[in-house]
Write a structure and sequence with these properties.
mainly beta; 25 strands; 5-stranded antiparallel beta sheet; Neuraminidase; 4-stranded antiparallel beta sheet
Length: 327
């Protein structure tokens, strides 16, 4: 016996409300998304596909983007999109390195953390680029010479690193230690023995946080150089099986993260963790980024093209929602 399908009454308020949510509740219609090749179009050769997997990014206050790639070889790049400027410049192909774990922008210098098949992670530094004013007239680029400062912890790969709130130093983790690097003196220092799964986050109070076990975060105050173990309790969820990821909203100081099941939370140093904001359709979660105005969170599931967009506060109310874009 067949079951007759019920037809939608498009004139009913319930169906109109549902159509409205589908049409306007899954996409953010403001702002700009930029897809750009890994070169200066028409002038330079792009980074080779087997060497162009971007695994580290940071941005200066002026909006210049620095990044690092992983693959057969690791590259350090700069991207400039101001006004009529539009270019990605491959600044350096790093010898004996196949993975860039972090890029950190200081006040005047850049620090890139790279790992290779032999030995531990290394820190490379160079001066930041000035803002380009015009790339339409005759131009020329010279690949700068990076200073290779060696391994902050001999024999241990660098897992991740971030610049502190003052942009005067870098705080990072290796496979077994917490370390700091000073931009001015170009010296690194081992701070503590610690095991951390995943990446570090810069909290709203300026402290740097990382996963400590399966139920807490540790917190490091770069100003006082004090490390507090298991000081922040994680919300109820599944933690510790996949590397922790963070996305920072520079407007409010919020950090966004997800647990192993893809449940999304925000964290503020003064208020702690939020209740669950939504849940991704796919796990594990890998890259995350907050939009420039702080109103949206982009989450990309690793290796496939399944995108999820969370708008922390919808235009029609205060209810957070999560939408699958399926790009």
């Amino acid at each position: 016996m067949s079951v007759q399908k019920k037809k939608f009454d498009y004139s009913s308020p319930q169906v109109q409300k549902q159509v409205e949510e589908i049409q306007h509740g899954s996409f953010m219609r403001q702002g700009t998304m930029l897809a750009f090749p890994m070169n200066f179009p028409g002038a330079t050769i792009p980074i080779a596909p087997d060497e162009s997997h971007i695994t580290a990014l940071d941005t200066t206050p002026e909006g210049i983007i620095y990044g690092g790639t992983s693959g057969i070889r690791s590259h350090i790049l700069v991207a400039m999109f101001h006004g009529i400027t539009g270019a990605v410049f491959d600044m350096q192909i790093v010898d004996n390195a196949d993975h860039c774990s972090a890029v950190c922008c200081g006040k005047n210098k850049l620090a890139a953390c790279v790992n290779g098949p032999n030995g531990g992670g290394r820190i490379l530094t160079n001066a930041l680029h000035p803002i380009a004013s015009d790339l339409i007239q005759e131009w020329g680029f010279i690949r700068p010479d990076f200073a290779d400062l060696g391994e902050p912890v001999p024999g241990e790969p660098i897992v991740h690193a971030v610049a502190d709130a003052s942009r005067e130093r870098v705080v990072g983790i290796t496979s077994r230690h917490l370390f700091s690097f000073d931009f001015e003196t170009a010296k690194s220092k081992v701070l503590a023995k610690i095991s951390c799964i995943g990446r570090l986050g810069l909290a709203s109070n300026g402290n740097i946080v990382g996963l400590d076990g399966t139920g807490h975060l540790w917190s490091y105050d770069a100003r006082t150089q004090a490390l507090h173990r298991q000081t922040i309790k994680l919300p109820s969820g599944a933690w510790g099986q996949t590397p922790l990821r963070w996305a920072r909203d520079s407007h409010q100081g919020l950090l966004y993260t997800t647990d192993d099941s893809g449940t999304i939370f925000s964290f503020h140093a003064d208020h702690g963790f939020s209740s669950p904001l939504g849940k991704t359709m796919f796990t594990p979660v890998s890259p995350m980024a907050v939009t420039f105005d702080g109103r949206g969170l982009w989450i990309l599931r690793r290796w496939d093209c399944q995108d999820v967009l969370l708008r922390p506060r919808s235009q029609t109310g205060n209810r957070p929602w999560c939408g699958h874009l399926g790009i």
